[in-house]
Design brief:
mainly alpha; binds zinc ion; 114 residues
């Protein structure tokens, strides 16, 4: 569950303030709903649903296991998306230093404390 505190390529800090990733839960929730929707559609296409048997409940179990397996990927993807909402891509990042307007909000002793 550990993540880089700096981008290994451009050295952009990934946690730009205390509690920064608190809001990433909303992104993660939306991604999880998308996974559920896709899993539901694929199950419906290949296995189907019926009121006469327990296929729906098998899908619920399958979907729960699928979400548990995908959680580390969804967490990282949602954190990357959340960070990209706040830090703009700089096409000339190699030529000048990281934009340090966020640096004063980084409190090293409070990192990961949320
Ligand atoms: Zn980078």
């Amino acid at each position: 569950m550990k993540m880089n505190s700096l981008c290994p390529v451009c050295k952009q800090p990934t946690e730009i303030e205390v509690g920064f990733y608190y809001g990433t839960g909303y992104v993660s929730y939306a991604l999880a709903l998308m996974v559920c929707g896709i899993s539901f559609a694929v199950w419906w296409l290949f296995i189907g649903f019926s009121l006469d048997d327990s296929r729906f409940f098998w899908w619920l179990g399958f979907n729960a296991v699928l979400l548990a397996i995908m959680q580390p990927y969804l967490m990282r993807l949602s954190r990357s998306m959340w960070l990209s909402f706040f830090v703009r891509y700089d096409p000339f990042w190699k030529e000048h230093a990281i934009d340090d307007k966020h640096m004063d909000r980084i409190v090293p002793e409070q990192m990961g404390n949320w």
